Amino acid sequence: MTRIAIVTGASSGLGKEFVKHIDAGASGQIDEIWVVARRLERLEALQRTCGTPVRPFCLDLTDPASFEVIEGALGQTPGAEVALLVNNAGFGVFGNVAMQDKRDGGAMVRLLMQAPVELIYRALPYLRRGSRIINIASVAAFLPQPNLAVYSAAKRFILDLSRSLDAELGGSDIHVTAVCPKFMQTEFLDTPGDATAARAMTAIGFERADRVAARALRASRRGQSLYIPSLDMKAYYVASRVLPYKTALAAERALGII
Ligand SMILES: NC(=O)c1ccc[n+]([C@@H]2O[C@H](COP(=O)([O-])OP(=O)(O)OC[C@H]3O[C@@H](n4cnc5c(N)ncnc54)[C@H](OP(=O)(O)O)[C@@H]3O)[C@@H](O)[C@H]2O)c1
């Protein structure tokens, strides 16, 4: 049996933190960590810091051929078991859709929605009792967000997918957790699109990527289908479930977030 943890978007930010915690034993016995991103040199640098064998995959997850590479690698690994899949790779473009580059929307849809779905399908034959999937959503998933329309809709998709998948697989002790962080100081905000819109939204505050990763792994081990790391965003989630959308939107406008 080869117990594998797959982490996408491992070349920086939250993904890198996940790898560090997995390497330190936060997900129990893991024989190999497969790290996926486009910047190979970053993955190789991360590999050198880990005690666990790390296998870098230099892949663009907006390209469907990438999924075949992962499927092929799983097929060629004797006794492969996907103990953990972390669908983390992502980027977001802030600002009005009308102002965005027309390539951004499709790329967000492919990376934030299609890639996790494709990787989940390919991991399914290799999941065993106790396996876990973590899908990185966002607090942007709670409500449709003007100035972050495609991103927030894509994160809603992954949030809903995670919860229904968890209900489907939970009976076999395979759990799927949607993680909804607020802002983190990563490379995510380096190329935000409309920087003014991005700055306004960061008024909700930041949390630390290393803590989000550690706590998300704990929540996933407990079998939680939804994990919201910060207390204020838990309250926001509850409000988003009870307030009419227009009221919530008016509140966001009054707070200067959108
Ligand atoms: N930071 C925040 O404020 C925040 C808040 C809530 C949720 N999130 C979510 O958290 C996740 C991690 O983001 P982060 O904050 O850690 O941002 P980050 O530092 O920019 O990391 C993004 C990761 O995704 C990878 N990636 C981007 N495009 C890719 C592609 N086409 N194919 C393969 N990999 C790709 C990047 O690697 P390469 O560039 O090397 O490919 C990088 O490793 C994302 O899903 C994001 O939506 C972030």
SSE map:
Elements: E1 2-8, H1 13-23, E2 32-37, H2 40-49, E3 54-58, H3 65-75, E4 80-87, H4 102-123, E5 132-136, H5 149-169, E6 175-179, E7 183-184, H6 195-201, E8 206-207, H7 209-222, E9 226-227, H8 231-242, H9 245-254
Helix pairs in contact: 1-7, 3-4, 4-5
This protein binds NADP nicotinamide-adenine-dinucleotide phosphate.
Residues 9-15, 37-39, 42, 60-62, 88-92, 111, 136, 138, 181, 183-184, 186-188 line the site of NADP nicotinamide-adenine-dinucleotide phosphate (NAP).
Per CATH, the superfamily is NAD(P)-binding Rossmann-like Domain
Percent helix, as a range, is 40-55%
End-to-end gap: 50 Å
Hetero groups in this structure are: NADP nicotinamide-adenine-dinucleotide phosphate
Order of helical and strand elements:
EHEHEHEHEHEEHEHEHH
CATH class term: Alpha Beta
What number of domains? 1
| CATH architecture descriptor name | 3-Layer(aba) Sandwich
Based on secondary structure, the structural category is alpha/beta
Detailed description of the structure:
One of its GO terms (cellular component) is membrane. Belongs to the short-chain dehydrogenases/reductases (SDR) family. InterPro entries: NAD(P)-bd_dom_sf, SDR_fam. Keywords: Oxidoreductase. This is Oxidoreductase, short chain dehydrogenase/reductase family protein. By secondary structure, the chain is of the alpha/beta class. It has a single domain, classed as NAD(P)-binding Rossmann-like Domain (Rossmann fold, 3-Layer(aba) Sandwich), CATH 3.40.50.720. 46% of the residues lie in helices and 16% in strands. The protein has 9 helices and 9 strands. The chain has a 7-stranded parallel β-sheet, with helices on both faces. Helix 2 links the parallel strand 2 (32-37) and strand 3. Helix 3 runs parallel beside helix 4 (102-123) and helix 4 packs parallel to helix 5 (149-169). The model has no long low-confidence stretch (mean pLDDT 98). The structure holds NADP nicotinamide-adenine-dinucleotide phosphate (NAP).
